[in-house]
Every structure is written in C-alpha cells, then in structure tokens.
C-alpha cells in the first residue's frame, strides 16, 4: 500500500475530489459529520452509564468528541514524520491532512451503535437468533444476509449510515477507509480472530460493493474474497478509542463513587511515565474532580506518545499488511491499561444501574423489532390490518420509497427496520416501546 493512494480525497465514483482554499476535503468530512443527524443522536446514547443524571458522565457524543480530539493529535504526530520520510507527499499533503482524516473517522466511529450500548447489539442479534418471529425470516434470506442479521455489528451499521444517501455525507475515501476497523464481511468461514482486523466485521452485504470500490481506489491489499488489510490510519482511530474509553471510563467511575480516588490515582500512575515530572502540580489542586481530571490528561498524553511511536516504528509492516494488532495492546503501558480495564469491568461495567438498563434493553429492542418487522411483512404482503398499518406510519419516510423499488426483498425490509430501531436514542426507544405497548 502507498500513502498517495491511501490519502485519496475522492468522495464517490460519481463525486470528484475537491478542496476549498481554507478547508481541505478531509476537514469538510469532519464538518459534515458533526452537523449530521446521526451524530446529534449520540447525545442520548449510552457510553457506560446510561441516561446519566450527572453532567460529568460521558455519553456517546462526548466520548466521540474526545476520541476525535485524541485522534487528530495522533494523526498530526504521525503525519509529520511520514511526510519527512516521504518528501514527495509534501506537494499534495500536510500533517493537518493526516490529523483531519483520523479526527473525522474517530468522530464517526460510534455512529452505528444502537440504544443501550453493547447490550443493544446483543439484543438485535438475539431477536433473529432466538425470537420466533425473528427466526422465521431465515428461509427468506441468503446465508450472507442471515449472518448480517444474526450478528448485528455497530461498526458495520456505522459504515452503512455514513454511506446512506439520505444523510448526504459523501465522505472521502481516505476517511471511509480509516473508519473501517474491520474490513471484512460477517459471513467469513476462514475468519482468523488472532488478527485484529478480523475480530469483528465492518460492513454488511448491502454495502459490500461500496466497500469494494473504496478499497480498490485506496489500493488496500486484499487478503481473500471476504477481507482486506486495514487502512493504516485505522490503527490510530482504534488507538484513540482504546485510550479514551479505558482512561475516561475510569475517570467517570471515580466521579460516580464506584472507584475510590486513591485506587484510581494508583491506576493512572501505572500509565504515567514521561509526564511524572508534572505530578507535583497534583497537590496544588483543590478538588478531587480537578485532580482526577489532571491525572487523566497526563495519562492520555503519555499513551498518545507511546502509540504514535509504535505506529512509526512499524510503518513498513503496516503498509505491507504484515502488522495486524491493536497499538494499545503492544504499547509500553499495556499491562497498566489491562489493570485499568479489569477494575472498570469489576467496579463500573457491572454496576447495578448498568445491569438494570442493559436488562431493559433486552426487553425493549426485541419488543420494537417484533412489532415493526411484523408491520413490514404486512406492508410487503399488502395485508389489511389496522394495527400494523398504524405502525407502518411510524417508520421513517424513506421506508416506502425504498421498498417500492424492491417490493419482495425481505433483506431490504429487515435492514430498514433495523436501521430505524438501532438509530433510536435510549430515551426514544423506551418511550416508543411504552407507547406502542399501551404502557404510556
């Protein structure tokens, strides 16, 4: 793989690349995402602690902004060195282009997450795997299509969202490539989970041709018919996410009183190495909130330095496809990060409120899918039923035009229903479920 192709500003086969004098195509990507409807919905989607009552607890939106900020810095750090190593690139690119690509891809990285976080992903998959109505669709779909539905994946849903015409994002190929952490399909008999790029999947069968055209333009190396090697900047997007969720979830846990400050401080100290000389300032801070925030900032700074250095040390292997691991899993502080994650799992992710809302998600999401997929079947079969005719009216405006083109396509119908349900915010999902079940 080569950097010139990997930094393609092409937007689609029908939309040529262009930049403005004051704003590159990659900066335009960032702006398009931040003003989009799917991004705004992240304000009311669970990060760890759902429907937070405290303003210092992160939602998917604040998490995405922070990941994007870290990603931009990582991109610029790496880009500066890559440009020095490849002087011919300086004619067309600057370090800010690297930063803007990683920032935009990081900003979009959670767009496909359903209500109730990872519990929501499981609830959608369980509907098709376990629910009688969900299971009844299996004989109407191909093996590949059925695999998409029984293994709902937020990353693949995100790729679908950023490529849907209704949102008009038309992101550059470079940003779309960096966004795709798992460049493979759901139905992948030869999947090798020891490779980070194949741990999950990154696009549904419905978007496979779109990804193929992007991969071709970027000249991503293909591993087999179902998978490709990652875009190199994907490793920085992933690192930004790994850094933020592990460090900031611990900060939230401390703020909520789930983790003692003394324990959190010790865990942060395990990560902080290069910035130890700055710790003297800690005792000058008056509140625990300020102190934990300062430790978080120092830890993120050190992890960014470690991950960017690791990327540059392995640039050649990343470009030739022989490197396929998460940077955070190899960095100097990896053992300290594991300690943080272990404490977070025990003290934060299994907290009572988290467990309660996840349990609610497993009731709400299958309940919505049961009603709306049944309404979809009635629509396709032109069945006269007042209840389901009313439910059809609650579906997004694009449902009918999309189904008019392919009126007997069950996969398309189910994809549109899953788009609708997975796109709901936590509160909207609960209130809609209550209303259509007659509880409110």
UniProtKB/TrEMBL annotation:
Molecular function as annotated in GO: dGTPase activity
Every HD/PDEase domain range: 56-255
Gene Ontology BP term (one): dGTP catabolic process
Keywords of the record: Hydrolase
Transmembrane segments: none
InterPro entries: dGTP_triP_hydro_central_sf, dGTP_triphosphohydrolase_C, dGTPase, dGTPase-like, HD/PDEase_dom, HD_domain, PHydrolase_assoc_dom
Name used for this protein in its record: Deoxyguanosinetriphosphate triphosphohydrolase
């Amino acid at each position: 793989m080569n950097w010139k192709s990997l930094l393609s500003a092409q937007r689609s086969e029908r939309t040529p690349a262009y930049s403005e004098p004051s704003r590159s195509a990659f900066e335009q990507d960032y702006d398009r995402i931040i003003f989009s409807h799917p991004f705004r919905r992240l304000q009311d989607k669970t990060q760890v602690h759902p429907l937070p009552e405290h303003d210092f607890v992160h939602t998917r939106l604040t998490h995405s902004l922070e990941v994007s900020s870290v990603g931009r810095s990582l991109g610029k750090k790496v880009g500066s060195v890559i440009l020095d190593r490849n002087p011919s690139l300086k004619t067309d690119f600057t370090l800010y282009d690297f930063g803007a690509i990683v920032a935009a891809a990081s900003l979009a990285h959670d767009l496909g997450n359903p209500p109730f976080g990872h519990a929501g992903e499981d609830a959608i998959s369980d509907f098709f795997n376990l629910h009688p109505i969900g299971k009844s669709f299996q004989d109407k779909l191909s093996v590949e299509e059925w695999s998409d539905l029984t293994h709902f994946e937020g990353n693949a849903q995100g790729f679908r969202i950023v490529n849907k015409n209704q949102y008009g994002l038309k992101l550059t190929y470079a940003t779309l490539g960096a966004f795709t952490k798992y460049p493979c399909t759901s139905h992948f008999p030869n999947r090798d989970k020891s490779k980070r790029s194949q741990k999950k999947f990154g696009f549904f069968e419905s978007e496979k041709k779109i990804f193929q055209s992007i991969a071709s333009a970027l000249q991503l190396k293909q591993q087999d018919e179902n998978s490709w090697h990652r875009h190199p900047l994907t490793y920085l997007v992933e690192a930004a996410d790994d850094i933020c969720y592990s460090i900031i979830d611990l900060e939230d846990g401390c703020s909520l009183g789930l983790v003692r400050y003394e324990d959190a401080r010790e865990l942060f100290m395990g990560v902080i190495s290069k910035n130890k000389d700055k710790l003297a300032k800690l005792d000058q801070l008056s509140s625990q909130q300020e102190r934990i925030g300062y430790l978080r900032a120092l830890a993120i700074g050190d992890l960014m330095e470690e991950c960017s250095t690791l990327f540059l040390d392995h640039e050649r292997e990343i470009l030739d496809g022989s490197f396929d691991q998460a940077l955070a899993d190899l960095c100097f502080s990896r053992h300290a990060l594991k300690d943080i994650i272990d404490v977070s799992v025990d003290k934060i992710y299994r907290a009572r409120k988290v467990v309660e809302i996840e349990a609610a998600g497993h009731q709400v999401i299958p309940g919505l899918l049961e009603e709306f997929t049944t309404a979809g079947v009635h629509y396709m079969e032109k069945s006269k039923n007042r209840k389901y005719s009313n439910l059809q009216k609650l579906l997004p405006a694009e449902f009918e035009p999309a189904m008019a083109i392919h009126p007997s396509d069950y996969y398309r119908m189910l994809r549109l229903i899953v788009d609708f349900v997975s796109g709901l915010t936590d509160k909207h999902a609960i209130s809609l479920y209550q209303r259509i079940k007659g509880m409110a």
